[in-house]
């Protein structure tokens, strides 16, 4: 019986000086090479959908110097 591949969400953005997209691309590429399905979000609004978030095995954030809403 085949198992479903692991899933990962990367939330990337904020101040470009911290190179969030480059950092995320590095780790996302590694996980893809390991057979993981990877999705990338460049908005913090992704955190508003709890059902969507629960569909991932791991969530990684590289998002700095920004503002998150109360929600």
Quick overview of this protein structure:
It is built from 2 helices and 3 strands.
Produce the secondary structure layout.
Blueprint: E1 7-14, H1 20-33, E2 37-41, H2 50-53, E3 58-64
Parallel strand pairs: 1-2, 1-3
Indicate the proportion of strand residues.
25-35%
Q: What would the principal axes of the Cα set say about the shape?
A: flat
Number of DSSP strands?
A: 3
Please compute the radius of gyration using only Cα atoms: 13 Å
Distance between the termini: 40 Å
SS class: alpha/beta
Biggest β-sheet: strands ordered side by side in the sheet? 2-1-3
Instruction: Name the helicity range.
Output: 25-40%
The biggest beta sheet reads:
3 strands, parallel
Count of helix runs:
2
Instruction: Write the element-wise H/E pattern from the N-terminal end onward.
Output: EHEHE
Residue ranges: pLDDT <50 for 5 or more in a row? Answer: none
- The whole-number mean of residue pLDDT values reads 93
Q: Could you explain how this protein is built, in words?
A:
A three-stranded parallel sheet has the order 2-1-3, covered by helices on one side. It starts with 6 loop residues before the first strand and ends in a 7-residue tail after the last strand. It is built from two helices and three strands. By secondary structure, the protein is α/β, with parallel strands linked by helices. 14% of the residues are buried.
């Amino acid at each position: 019986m085949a198992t479903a591949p692991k899933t990962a969400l990367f939330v990337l953005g904020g101040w470009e000086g911290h190179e969030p997209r480059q950092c995320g691309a590095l780790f996302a590429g590694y996980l893809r090479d390991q057979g993981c399905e990877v999705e990338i979000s460049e908005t913090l609004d992704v955190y508003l959908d709890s059902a969507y978030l629960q569909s991932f095995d791991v969530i990684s954030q590289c998002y700095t110097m920004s503002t998150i809403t109360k929600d």
